[in-house]
Design a protein that fits this description.
Length: 108
């Protein structure tokens, strides 16, 4: 796991995102392509537990290929999630300028 800090000048450019229907999810999910990767994204920064965990588990079901990514925006790291998925997934954490976390999950 890597923890990075992202400065305002490093913000990701706007990429067209398509809203997708994900059964069992309670937050909106979006899909987009970036640098040959298929990214699925959701934002749980304003959600109380267990909503971030529930949506992360649903989103991880979308990760089926090495080029798939789940991008989670959350107010803190989902520490309870990591042990449950450590055998199958790896992740990178970025601390955003506003102190929220961006966690990007991929298959090992």
């Amino acid at each position: 796991m890597n923890i990075l800090r992202k400065k305002d000048s490093e913000k990701i450019p706007k990429i067209p995102k398509e809203r997708i229907d994900l059964p069992g999810a309670t937050l909106p999910f979006f899909k987009y392509e970036e640098e040959g990767l298929t990214c699925f994204e959701f934002n749980s920064t304003k959600s109380d537990p267990p909503i971030p965990m529930v949506n992360a588990m649903r989103g991880l079901e979308l990760i089926k290929r090495p080029e798939d990514r789940l991008v989670m925006q959350n107010m803190q790291e989902p520490m309870g999630l990591y042990p449950k998925i450590a055998e199958t997934f790896e992740w990178e954490v970025t601390v955003l300028e506003n102190s929220d976390m961006q966690i990007v999950f991929k298959l090992k």
